[in-house]
Design the sequence.
């Protein structure tokens, strides 16, 4: 069953950002075609629980599959009237890329090439895709600007995300395919990924297990609340592709780096428990600070992230306690 509306195609729709974006678009009256391979990089029950929420919506269609499967993608692009593609499917994680490099090449490079080919062939109005703040590597300029050089990635994950930007540029240049890359800065919030700091820390603190704090807690991260991310993407979908250039890159960040030690303090306060801290030096593939220059984004969509770290962590902890039935 398929309605006659144009679809927004979201890959990775059962992932953290993908789920929030899918839900928001459906609430706004869009028709969404969602795809996810439901892999077990982290607990799949979390993915299925996210999916259950959006599956109730009459204007949502779900297909289980991978962007690495070009035949399946071709079939979906032919079957559905897709207007905009938001590619969020990827193998995430900096540390996991040190252990399992081939997975990153397949999902993030081969899979993305398939998306580009289908978008070109089916003359998609706008391809929006996830890049990452990790492309900045050990950038010394602060805040990080989209005009800064990004040719020194310090992890394979970052290298694949940089590759996505270069591939998108080529398709925009050769075929005038409108592409917009989003460099996400440490996105957090309810329904987050269990491999990310906030979730890992909350889990360990509740169980009174030690948490590993790299660079002795002196790292700074531009933590960005998930609702600010979905609002930004929604506005970019509404706005459509750039008129002056088919190729655009934006930083999606909060523009306010927070020290990791303070981040943990706020989490302890909302959980009502103290962390057992294991202080460690910097890890390979990690960077001491991320800080997003979002002037370009604010200018183009007239929106600046609003949710403070204190409010964002409070909302996460409320969800976390409710989801895991913690008193």
Sequence:
């Amino acid at each position: 069953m398929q309605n006659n509306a144009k679809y927004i195609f979201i890959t990775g729709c059962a992932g953290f950002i993908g789920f929030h974006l899918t839900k928001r678009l459906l609430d706004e009256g869009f028709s969404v075609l969602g795809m996810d391979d439901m892999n077990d990089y982290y607990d799949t029950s979390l993915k299925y629980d996210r999916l259950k929420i959006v599956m109730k919506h009459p204007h949502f269609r779900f297909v289980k599959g991978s962007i690495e499967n070009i035949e399946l993608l071709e079939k979906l692009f032919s079957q559905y009237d897709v207007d905009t593609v938001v590619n969020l499917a990827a193998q995430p994680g900096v540390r996991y890329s040190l252990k399992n490099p081939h997975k990153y090449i397949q999902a993030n490079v081969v899979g993305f090439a398939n998306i580009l080919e289908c978008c070109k062939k089916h003359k998609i109005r706008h391809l929006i895709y996830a890049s990452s703040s990790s492309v900045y590597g050990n950038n010394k300029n602060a805040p990080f600007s989209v005009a800064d050089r990004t040719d020194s990635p310090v992890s394979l994950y970052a290298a694949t995300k940089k590759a996505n930007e270069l591939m998108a540029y080529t398709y925009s240049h050769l075929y005038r395919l409108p592409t917009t890359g989003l460099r996400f800065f440490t996105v957090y919030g309810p329904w987050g990924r269990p491999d990310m700091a906030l979730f890992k820390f909350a889990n360990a603190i509740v169980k009174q297990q030690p948490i590993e704090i790299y660079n002795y807690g002196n790292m700074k991260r531009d933590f960005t609340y998930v609702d600010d991310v979905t609002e930004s993407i929604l506005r970019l979908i509404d706005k459509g592709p750039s008129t002056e250039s088919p190729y655009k890159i934006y930083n999606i960040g909060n523009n306010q780096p927070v020290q990791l030690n303070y981040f943990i303090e706020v989490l302890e306060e909302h959980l009502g428990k103290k962390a057992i801290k294991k202080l460690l030096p910097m890890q390979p593939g990690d960077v001491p600070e991320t800080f997003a220059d979002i002037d370009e984004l604010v200018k183009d969509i007239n929106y600046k992230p609003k949710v403070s770290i204190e409010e964002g962590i409070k909302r996460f902890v409320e969800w976390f306690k409710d989801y895991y039935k913690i008193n």
In short: Residues 7-188+224-254+291-306 form a domain with the Rossmann fold fold (CATH 3.40.50.720).
